[in-house]
Amino acid sequence: MAMSERRVTRRGFLLTLSAGAATTILAACGGSMTPTIAPTAAPAAAPTVAATAAATRAATTAAAAPITVSATSTVASVATRAASPVVSASPATSVTRAASPVAVATARQIAVAATTTHIQDFLKNVGGNRLLVSGILKPNVDPHDYETSVQDAQTISRAEIIFVYGVGLDTFMDKAIANANSKVPTITVTRGITPLAGDAQEPDGDPHMWFDPTLAQKMVTNIGEALAQFDPPSAVFYRQNVQAYNAQIAQMDTQVQGIYNQIPAVDRKLVTNHDAFQYLAKHFSLNIVGAVIPSISDAAEPTAQDINDLIDTIREQQVKAIFAESSANPKVAQQVAQETGIKIVDNLYGDTLGAPGSDGDTYLKMMVADATTIVTALK
Ligand SMILES: [Zn+2]
Question: Are residues 293 and 239 in the same domain?
């Protein structure tokens, strides 16, 4: 067993090298495609790995249909690109785009547990089929007052490496990890990033950092470096995927700024459901004039005075809409909207990604979806 593992590892390393070469060739040719490691040099890779449906799908896509990207809209094309760090070890001329990252040749997948839906998505983009990512938080579940389940305990005890978000957003994991008696590495994805100030409910700082794409890139880099250390034979693969995915984030950043620029900065006035959007506002020049729940955590309750003040602000500033998140309770927001006669837009993606198949089921898509929703309501 040790023999075959070593062989696989070595082959993985060779593959990685040639993938690097493919990238260089691509770059030299001015190729803009995201490179992928295709299983040409390692025919055993896909079959021996407990092949997931995604892996099979990716392989099929790559083999059967060279560019099957049918971009019906900008969102769709971003989404498709998002799913794709792909390097071909075969000649650069036959590089095809697969549906998801293809991992280096390996004996088995690494079991990873990850808390928030954003970091689950980052991990899938960086680790591809090398990882088996189990999410603790599911789409549309509010992280602020989450309590772990029996199933979460099992996920944690099976994990070989655990990724948590940090900044107080998933402190529920401390207890869960201790209870599971897990001794595996726990990586805080936001390490090294200084958050904006928090409040009484969020003393560690404002955790909603993914709304600034440059901070999301730092998280992606942190994830890649942690994986490279944990699984050195695939280090080059992870780092290539970090580079490719961070380039897609940069592209999304430009696209999203373009969407916000459709309305003058002075008219970009937001009233939101809870103070989740400070990073978004800062990065894209939006102006948050009020929040229905005047706290960074949506676990807080507004007082009658808070609500009256907000109604005054909405009238004075001629705010056009209240933006609520899909994961938060919109009851108070509805009350304020009714009182002021403005509309309520209740489908922003805030603390979680959307369900699979929604227009916010990846980080790149949710950022575009939110911008589109906000701009449409403010026009
Ligand atoms: Zn939040």
Answer: no
